[in-house]
Design brief:
This protein has about 325 residues and is an alpha/beta fold. The protein has ten helices and twelve strands. The protein has a twelve-stranded mixed beta sheet with strand order 1-4-3-2-5-6-11-10-7-8-9-12, with helices on both faces.
C-alpha cells in the first residue's frame, strides 16, 4: 500500500488547470464516477475531523479506484504547525490501517483560500469536513466557511458528525426533496450513488405544517376540509414522477411524505426511522454553503442527523454514468 505525503509551506505559483465543474472535464470523467470519487478531507486533529477521516476511508474502501487527499492548513490564528503535522500523521496512520492509498498536503495560509485552491487544483468532487453538531463545524473548516470557501465554488460538502457512525455506509440512502434545482441535483447524486453500489434510495418530501395537524393526519387521518390530504397527495405525485425513470432502470426507490413544523427535524427523524446511513440534500443559496445559508434547513439536518449529510449546491456537478441494475421497484 502506498501512502504519499507532501508538505507545502507556501502555495505554489498558480498554474492553469481545468476545473472539474467545466463541461469539457465532465465529458472526460470515467463512466460510473460519482460525487465521492475524489474526496478532499479537511484535517485539523479534532474529534469531528477524526470522524470525517474515518468516514472518508470507509467510503474509499467501497469506491473503485478511490482518490482521497488529506489537507491540513497552518493558520497561526487557528492551529500551530505541530498540530497540523500531528493531525496529518494520525490521518495517514488510519489510512495505512484501512489499506487505502491516500495523499496528504499541508499548506500555510487562510483555511478558506487554501481549501478552495486545493479543491480546484486537485479537481475534488467533494469536500469532507467534521462537524461539532450544534457548535458548528470543526476548527479549520468553520474558519473556511466564514471566509467563503464554499461561497466561491459549487462543490458538494459531506459533513460528518463527531458521534458514533453508522455500522454500514451506502447501503440505504435518504434524499430530501423539495422541488428546487438544488434538490434535483441532490436526487441525481443520490440516485447515482445508490445505482453504482446497489443501494436502496429513500426519497422524502416534507410537508411543512403544524405538528398537531401533521400527526393528526398521519395517525388518524384528521383532515376536516381535505386540504392536508391534497398537500400530501401533491407531494407524493411529484416524488413518483421524479423516481419513475430511475426505478425503470433498476434502482430501488421508496417514497415517503411526512409533515411537521421543523423540516430539518423531520428529515433527520425519517433517516433514523428508515435506517438510512447517508442523507443527501440540496442547498438553495446562490453563494454556496455560506454561513448565512447554514442557518437554514441544511444546517439543521447537519446538526440533528446521526449520519453523514451530503449537501449539494444547485450547480453542483453530479458526474457521469450510473451502473444500470436489473430489478425495478418503487415502494409507496
Amino acid at each position: 500500500m502506498l501512502v504519499r505525503m507532501t508538505v507545502r509551506r507556501e502555495r505554489p505559483a498558480k498554474k492553469p488547470y481545468e476545473n472539474f465543474t467545466q463541461a469539457s472535464h465532465l465529458l472526460r470523467m470515467i463512466s460510473g464516477m460519482d460525487v465521492i470519487s475524489r474526496l478532499l478531507v479537511a484535517v485539523d486533529g479534532s474529534t469531528p475531523s477524526d470522524a470525517a477521516v474515518g468516514v472518508a476511508l470507509r467510503l474509499g474502501v467501497l469506491t473503485p479506484r478511490p482518490a482521497i487527499r488529506f489537507l491540513s492548513v497552518f493558520d497561526r490564528t487557528i492551529l500551530d504547525d505541530d498540530v497540523c503535522r500531528r493531525a496529518l500523521d494520525a490521518a495517514l496512520s488510519c489510512a495505512r490501517n484501512a489499506g487505502v492509498t491516500v495523499t496528504a498536503v499541508m499548506r500555510t495560509g487562510a483555511p478558506g483560500d487554501e481549501i478552495t485552491a486545493e479543491a480546484d487544483a486537485w479537481n475534488a468532487t467533494c469536500i469532507v469536513t467534521g462537524t461539532h453538531g450544534r457548535t458548528g463545524l470543526s476548527r479549520i473548516t468553520f474558519g473556511s466557511i466564514s471566509e467563503g470557501v464554499l461561497e466561491r465554488n459549487v462543490r458538494p460538502l459531506l459533513a460528518v458528525h463527531a458521534g458514533p457512525q453508522p455500522a454500514a455506509l451506502l447501503g440505504r440512502l435518504m434524499c430530501a426533496f423539495d422541488g428546487s434545482a438544488a434538490a434535483r441535483r441532490a436526487f441525481e447524486a443520490a440516485a447515482r450513488l445508490a445505482a453504482n453500489r446497489g443501494a436502496e434510495l429513500h426519497l422524502l418530501s416534507v410537508v411543512q405544517l403544524d405538528d398537531l395537524y401533521a400527526s393528526g393526519y398521519e395517525r388518524d387521518g384528521f383532515d376536516p376540509d381535505g386540504s392536508i390530504g391534497r398537500l400530501y397527495d401533491d407531494a407524493k405525485r411529484e416524488l413518483k414522477a421524479l423516481a419513475a425513470a430511475k426505478a425503470a432502470s433498476g434502482l430501488r426507490v421508496a417514497l415517503h411524505v411526512a409533515g411537521g413544523a421543523d423540516v430539518a427535524g423531520v428529515i433527520a427523524g425519517c433517516a433514523t426511522q428508515f435506517g438510512c446511513d447517508l442523507i443527501v440534500m440540496g442547498t438553495h443559496g446562490r453563494r454556496g454553503l455560506s454561513r448565512a445559508l447554514l442557518g437554514s434547513t441544511a444546517e439543521g439536518v447537519i446538526h440533528d442527523a446521526g449520519v453523514p449529510v451530503l449537501v449539494m449546491h444547485r450547480r453542483s456537478p453530479v458526474a457521469a454514468g450510473p451502473v444500470p441494475l436489473r430489478a425495478s421497484s418503487v415502494a409507496c
